[in-house]
Amino acid sequence: MLPLRDDVPSRTFPFVTVGLIVVNAVVFIGEIARSGGLQQAAYDYGFVPGYLTAFASGEGVPVGQAFFPLLSSMFLHGGWLHLIGNMWYLWIFGDNVEDRLGHLRFLLFYVLCGLIGNFAHYLFNTGSALPAIGASGAVSGVLGAYLISYPRARILVLLPLFFFWQFIELPALVVLGFWLVLQFLNGAASLAHGAGGGVAWWAHVGGFLGGILIFLIFRPRPRVAYRRGPAGRY
Hints:
single chain, mainly alpha, Rhomboid-like fold, three-stranded antiparallel beta sheet, 9% strand
């Protein structure tokens, strides 16, 4: 299912959410423009779990090569669909989480979720030589924070039903809960078959659960009061 919008209004303009979308878009254009393109950017700045393992084993991997990609990788994407998918979810759900945390704390929250997502990916892929890239871990943390903030919010989604696409409103608990279960099942399948199909499923799960924990630690502002109606109308 594809979420299109929610019914929770923002109290303030989401400067950080918009800024993160712009930064990710600019970085992606830079990836395309640089010598070697997307693949080279992934190997230069993506997170390679094997490097971190080699560093921990004292095999001479530079500290920057082992740890800097934990941060840089969350601003890289492997294609337009990868970028648009992550930024679409950030746009829909990020403004309300930013509302509750405030701008600066939301930025810190986003980065921490991305780091937790990468670490979760590492735990299940310690010897991998493939670079992991994308904002999915950070965005997953935003989804986790949104879920515990507005579980009954109405989300307008585009849903395939009997070979037809339907517009339907569902509670955030259903939409995001289904999303989390799907990530977990795909992650479990990747362990069973020894391959993840190029998707860091455990980064999604780790980012989501980490987002819930960090959000609670940050003691967010009270939820905004709003009149529930059809998604997008207040």
